[in-house]
Design brief:
heterodimer; A: alpha+beta; 2 helices; B: alpha/beta; Rossmann fold; 5-stranded parallel beta sheet; two-stranded antiparallel ribbon; 9 strands
Chain lengths: 63, 317
């Protein structure tokens, strides 16, 4: 199956790519939005003093 | 001739990119100074175009973000090969930054928390991201999520560092000027920052420090004029490079060290612990320990932005 990769997707905050699979007629068989990133704030803010949380989670997105 | 510039991000928040845009009307001067050949947050270029560049085609890459996964590392290596100068932009690329705090945990602990135990995620089948996944139409691939977060210079040779979380916009502007005017200092230098400790640029009044108690910010209102550390609030000023313009201090918030260590300091956190121990009123080990034991979460305080590049680097696994 023919594949079209849009990598990276742009003009947004964060990483992403789109994979499009075409069938033999050239029509879209399937398309996937993939997010190839994770930092894990959910884990590493655990146990952080509560007054420090605002200045850490502001680094989730700076845009 | 105009500079050929790439602006790229690894494990980042986009704040460094916004700091470039926050040069306001000077962004027009940057546009006069440089042609941008990759900048995912703001312009539409694809990786395939970068791969087609000749080696050293770019004059400089500004790389923000830490190295968290195999895609970050591959792009860092690709851009290193395509660039005459590799510049780490911001605390994450410089010293690992906030994403580096993940080094207190293992890869497995993070994936478990995020995908299996997150209160807002419905995942009854317990699906975790896979590097390869077969769909009905064909195979999909995702980058490898590493066990350890790294700073940029732990995976590629870095020529210069612009520190900060985020770097002060005018500091980025002046650093770009150094590139354009071919005035860069010796390789490995920190540019767009001071060469003294933040305390030297801080306007708060300092005298002999004798700390008898460490305070958290909700426990006492700081006075407006005195050094935070003297008042018992942990402030990383003594262990942090100047150049930020004392942004946090001016907002009544003690420093957490985003501008990184000074030259010749191997570990910002250890430097801060040394500075802290030396200003406590008790001078005996027992008395010092009694006060230091009251510091909540010392590691993520003194190595807030620098755990990945510290001597500890990560939790032992």
């Amino acid at each position: 199956m023919k594949r079209i990769a849009i990598d990276p997707i742009t003009r947004l905050e964060g990483h992403g790519k789109i994979m499009i699979f075409l069938n033999e007629q050239g029509a879209v068989d399937n398309a996937f939005l993939q997010i190839p990133e994770l930092r894990g704030f959910e884990k590493f803010v655990e146990g952080l003093p509560v007054e420090e949380i605002p200045r850490v989670v502001t680094r989730i997105c700076g845009v | 001739m105009k500079l050929k510039l790439a602006i790229y991000w690894g494990a980042a928040c986009g704040g460094c990119d916004v700091a470039i845009l926050d040069t306001h009307e000077k962004i027009l001067e940057i546009a006069d100074m440089a042609d941008i050949h990759l900048w995912p947050v703001a312009m539409d270029f694809k990786y395939a175009e970068v791969r087609a560049f000749k080696d050293k085609y770019l004059d400089a890459t500004l790389f923000s973000g830490a190295i968290r996964n195999s895609e970050n590392e591959e792009l860092a290596k690709l851009l290193r090969r395509k660039s005459k100068a590799m510049i780490a932009l911001g605390a994450c690329a410089h010293t690992g930054g906030v994403p580096g705090l993940a080094n207190m945990y293992t890869r497995g602990e993070i994936l478990d928390r995020v995908y299996l135990r997150s209160e807002s995620t419905i995942n009854p089948e317990g699906t975790l991201p896979a590097e390869e996944f077969m769909t009905n139409s064909g195979e999909l691939e995702l980058p490898r999520f590493y066990n350890t977060v790294k700073a940029l210079d732990q995976v590629v040779d870095v020529d210069y560092y612009i520190p900060g979380c985020p770097p002060a916009s005018l500091q980025i502007y002046s650093a770009l000027g150094l590139i354009a005017d071919d005035m860069l200092p010796k390789k490995g230098s920190v540019i767009g920052a001071g060469d003294r400790a933040l305390c030297d640029e801080c306007a708060r009044k300092k005298s002999e420090k004798t700390i008898t108690k460490i305070y958290r910010t909700h426990e006492k209102l700081p006075d407006a004029e005195t050094c935070f550390l003297e008042q018992g609030f942990i402030c990383l000023g003594p262990a942090t490079r100047s150049g930020c313009g004392s942004r946090c201090i001016k907002s009544w918030t003690p420093c957490r060290g985003c501008y990184g260590p000074l030259d010749d300091v191997k570990d910002q956190g250890i430097k801060m612990l040394g500075a802290l121990a030396s200003v406590l009123e008790p001078k005996d080990e027992k008395g010092i320990n009694a006060i230091l034991d009251t510091v909540v979460d010392p590691l993520r305080t003194v190595n807030r932005f620098s755990l990945a590049s510290s001597m500890l680097r990560r939790k032992k696994t």
